[in-house]
Structure formats: C-alpha cells, structure tokens
C-alpha cells in the first residue's frame, strides 16, 4: 500500500515553471505516474489524498485520514517513510504576502494560476529574488514590477 497525502503520486516538478510559462502546454504532461499506472505496472494499492496522522509501532498500525476527513486504521508488515519537505520561507518582511509564491508542487502551481492571468504576470527571476532582493522583497508586490508579457520566470 502506498499512501500519498497529496493528489499526485509522481509529477515532474522541474516542469512546473515551464507549464506556468507556457512552454509545456498540456498539464497532464507533468504527471509522470498516476495511481492507475502504478497499479497496472507494479500491482500496488496506491491511495492519494490519504494522510498518515499516527504511527503505532507496537501494534504495527497506522491511523490514516482520508480526503473526506474520515479515519481508518491500517496494519503493516514493514514501513517506509518518505515525508517530503516544505520550502523554506526566510523570516523577512513581506514574505507572507499573498502575491508571493513558492512553486514546488501542483497545488502550488494551481494557486499561482488562480491568482494570475496568462500574459499579465508580476514576477521576478529567481536570481533576482535570491541575490538582489533577498533582504526586502516588498517591492516585488508593486503592480507590474518585473512584468513579463509572455513568460513568467519563477
């Protein structure tokens, strides 16, 4: 059994900026594997939107929260943990502004696309953000600062 907290088991996160910028037109090209393909190829029971909320090693059981919020308990013989990571957001003024995004997952991509319209991006190049503006990103929040008409640099 493979439990995935998010909605996607395998995607090309290196392709996310290219989809955002229009180089990769079709969203499904970002999906490397799906639960259905993993089941067909490896006979795996893959469950997306299932979050492990507790591990009980003494009984070899897991408490799992489904997408609908209900809980179930699963048993295991062997357990492999792959918890992933979250991007670091440095403690600087303006970093929590709703117009600043991290782009690491498909839900991150969806948040950016929901906020912005194509060809009307307000964005900054990563190098700009990391090196030149790392001490004060608040100027990036100004309308049309570093605007790109055909590409969004993330």
Short description:
The chain is of the alpha+beta class and 154 residues long.
Which terms summarize this structure?
19% helix, alpha+beta, 154 residues, 21% strand, 4 helices
Protein model, in words:
- The protein is α+β, with helices and mostly antiparallel strands and 154 residues long.
- It is built from four helices and nine strands; from the N terminus they run E-E-H-E-H-E-E-E-E-H-E-H-E.
- The chain has helices spanning 16-20, 35-42, 106-115, 126-132; strands at 2-4, 10-11, 31-33, 46-48, 50-56, 61-66, 71-75, 121-122, 147-148.
- A three-stranded antiparallel β-sheet has the order 5-6-7, with no helix packed on it. The protein has a two-stranded parallel sheet with strand order 1-4.
- The longest helix is centred in the C-terminal third of the chain and has 10 residues, at 106-115.
- The radius of gyration is 19 Å and the shape is globular.
- The two termini are 35 Å apart.
- Mean pLDDT is 78; it is low at 119-154.
């Amino acid at each position: 059994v493979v439990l995935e907290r998010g909605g996607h088991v395998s995607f090309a996160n290196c392709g996310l900026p290219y989809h955002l910028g229009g180089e990769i037109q079709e969203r499904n090209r970002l999906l490397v594997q799906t639960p259905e393909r993993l089941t067909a190829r490896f006979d795996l029971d893959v469950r997306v939107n299932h979050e492990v909320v507790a591990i009980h090693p003494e009984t070899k059981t897991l408490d799992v929260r489904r997408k609908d919020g209900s809980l179930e308990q699963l048993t295991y013989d062997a357990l492999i943990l792959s918890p992933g990571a979250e991007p670091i957001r440095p403690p600087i003024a303006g970093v929590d502004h709703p117009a600043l995004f991290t782009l690491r997952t498909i839900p991150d991509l969806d948040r950016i696309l929901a906020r912005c319209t194509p060809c009307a991006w307000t964005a900054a190049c990563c190098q700009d953000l990391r090196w030149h503006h790392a001490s004060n990103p608040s100027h990036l929040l100004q309308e049309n600062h570093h605007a790109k008409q055909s590409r969004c640099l993330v």
